[in-house]
Design brief:
Converts the preformed base xanthine, a product of nucleic acid breakdown, to xanthosine 5'-monophosphate (XMP), so it can be reused for RNA or DNA synthesis. It is a single chain. The protein is an alpha/beta fold and 196 residues long. It has one domain: Rossmann fold, CATH 3.40.50. Helices cover 29% and strands 34% of the residues. It is built from 5 helices and 10 strands. Helix 5 links the parallel strand 8 and strand 9. The longest helix is centred in the N-terminal third of the chain and has 14 residues. The radius of gyration is 16 Å and the shape is globular.
């Protein structure tokens, strides 16, 4: 998606360890009109899927998922990384390793918000090694819901997460796929959507 690639080139910052900071517009400070355009693009790409729930993981994916969900007119459900006093009832639980935070989280989701009747679209800001998506996919599988696919804002194509998921038959739609990063440049993979 050219709009996203241009914004990453303009405002993204590459940090040591293959970290791409887009916190000025995507996942710390959020440019709502811009993210709304991303939501429209996800709706276009998944227009053929009977989505009933958008699923993400806290925290960076929540805002993006909300703007995507308004285009599908469905609720957002997010997996929490910590148990809290207001969580009750039966839970889906899995473990997720964070590439950025270099730690493993127990993630939980109340069973009352995801069931076998649901058709799920997973939304996340980044895809690196695919650990977060794998964890969310385990929750979807345990619930009996249908996984319609995963919508990713930025995929690090030089890491194996996206390719591994696609090899498993998962429909992954990434709005920008980074092929390589240096201190002063980011290059993107071109795909069949670039000219549409």
């Amino acid at each position: 998606m050219q709009l996203l690639e241009e914004r990453i080139r303009k405002d993204g910052i590459v940090k040591p360890g293959n970290i791409l900071k887009v916190d000025s517009f995507l996942n710390h400070q959020m440019d709502i009109p811009f993210i709304n355009e991303l939501g429209k693009e996800f709706k276009r790409r998944f227009a053929d899927a009977p989505i009933t729930k958008i699923l993400t993981i806290e925290a960076s994916g929540i805002g993006i998922a909300c703007l995507v969900a308004q285009h599908f007119n469905v609720p957002v459900v997010f997996a929490k990384k910590a148990q809290s006093l207001n969580l009750d009832g039966e839970m889906y639980c899995t473990k997720v390793q964070s590439f950025t935070h270099k730690r493993v989280y127990d993630v939980i989701l109340s069973k009352k918000f995801l069931s076998a009747e649901d058709h799920v679209l997973i939304i996340d800001d980044f895809l690196a090694n695919g650990c977060a998506l794998q964890g969310l996919m385990e929750i979807v599988k345990e619930s009996g819901a249908v996984l319609e696919g995963a919508g990713i804002v930025v995929e690090k194509g030089f890491q194996n997460g996206g390719d591994s998921l696609r090899e498993q038959g998962i429909r992954v739609e990434s709005l920008a796929i980074v092929d390589s990063m240096t201190d002063d440049s980011v290059s993107f993979r071109k795909d069949e959507w670039d000219n549409k």
